[in-house]
Design a protein that fits this description.
By secondary structure, this protein is an alpha+beta fold. The chain has a single domain, classed as Beta-lactamase (3-Layer(aba) Sandwich). It contains 15 helices and 9 strands. It is globular. It starts with a helix and ends in a 9-residue tail after the last helix. Bound molecules: zinc ion. The site of zinc ion has 7 residues, from loops.
């Protein structure tokens, strides 16, 4: 049986797992039908990726790329899902919330009033609306910016960066060889450049803009960690039975329930940014949208990441597409049968 093209690239002789696949003793975790469905769903997308991970066992179910990234030395370096380093935009906000709660500057009861912008040292950082009074759940459901600006104004850039690294950002995943590490800038990183204000960098990095970069695989692993309470590292065999990854520190796990619930509501609430009235998916997730200049050309980057089912996560995922908004990517991902059964 021939593998679909997006999967076959991983099974070739030159690929990081080509040797594995030739052994009849090993059953890979890759899901052939899921790859076929992704190929159909991404038919109109020129550049994008989707990653699906078995939350319990850590097995990679799908590692799908459409188009090629710029590197050309190995399969992993060409593979958008593991090599494209992109601004995560609002898809980073759940990690920002967990970090702020772990450091004690945010509780589920903390309130902030969004008036459409956040005044900071004489400049105004914008939110995309005037969202009124919000707690952290509401801020995640409507994807407020100014809530997170205020929260991280109490943190240093290095505290924020350490928190982001705790979820695997800024570090190459254990597999595949050649997978990109992304970038989590800290005060030292900016000190080597022309600087700018560390406080300003903290605020924009908290909402996934500025210089932070993640890969689709890293974002899927991060959401798997929120869904499971454990740090995931990708494995490729069905035999890796049992739960994978070490538990997150208690300072994080204690605060997972309100964040998980907020991401379920981002899909199910009528005001949720990933809500579509005609769809009733059993999914928790968060979208993100970024605009980035590359070689003088504006690129639009859309994300949708989360897990399914919302209450008892089995599969964590991240979808990315270029030239689409996060909402448009969510619409693709939430089409019945692609990641959830209803
Ligand atoms: Zn707002």
């Amino acid at each position: 049986m021939l593998a679909p093209p997006s999967l076959a690239v991983w099974l070739g002789v030159d690929s990081p797992i080509g040797g594995l696949d030739r052994s009849s003793e090993v059953r890979l975790s890759f899901d052939r039908e899921r790859h076929e469905r992704l190929e159909a769903a991404f038919a109109d997308v020129q550049l994008g990726a989707a990653v699906a991970i078995d939350v319990e066992k850590g097995g990679v179910l799908a590692l799908f790329s459409k188009g090629e990234s710029r590197g050309d030395r190995s399969i992993a370096e060409r593979h958008v899902a593991v090599s494209s380093m992109l601004p995560p935009a609002s898809a980073i906000k759940p990690f920002t919330a967990l970090g702020a709660m772990a450091l004690g500057v945010l509780t589920p009861e903390t309130k902030h009033v969004c008036r459409g912008s956040f005044a900071y040292r004489g400049t105004q950082l914008r939110c995309w609306g005037a969202h009124g009074s919000l707690d952290v759940q509401r801020a995640l459901v409507v994807s407020d910016n100014s809530f997170f600006y205020e929260v991280v104004s109490k943190l240093t850039l290095d505290q924020l960066a350490d928190n982001q690294r705790s979820f695997g950002f800024g570090r190459a995943p254990d597999w595949p060889p050649g997978a990109a590490a992304g970038l989590v800038p800290d005060a030292k990183w900016y000190a080597r450049r022309d600087g700018g204000s560390p406080e300003h960098h903290t605020l924009v990095q908290a909402i996934g803009h500025g210089d932070i970069r993640v890969t689709p695989l890293q974002l899927a692993l991060g959401y798997a960690a929120i869904a499971s309470g454990r740090r995931s590292s990708p494995t490729l065999t069905q035999e890796s039975a049992g739960q994978s990854g070490e538990a997150l520190p208690e300072s994080y796990t204690a605060n997972l329930p309100p964040v998980r619930e907020a991401l379920a509501r981002a899909v199910s609430d009528a005001s949720g940014t990933a809500h579509f009235g005609d769809l009733k998916p059993d999914v928790a997730g968060k979208m993100g949208s970024a605009d980035e200049m590359v070689d003088g050309v504006a690129r639009k980057i859309g994300w949708f990441a989360g897990w399914t089912p919302a209450e008892k996560p089995r599969i964590a995922f991240a979808f990315y597409a270029e030239n689409l908004s996060g909402r448009a990517v969510a619409r693709i991902a939430l089409e019945p049968g692609l990641i959830s059964s209803n």
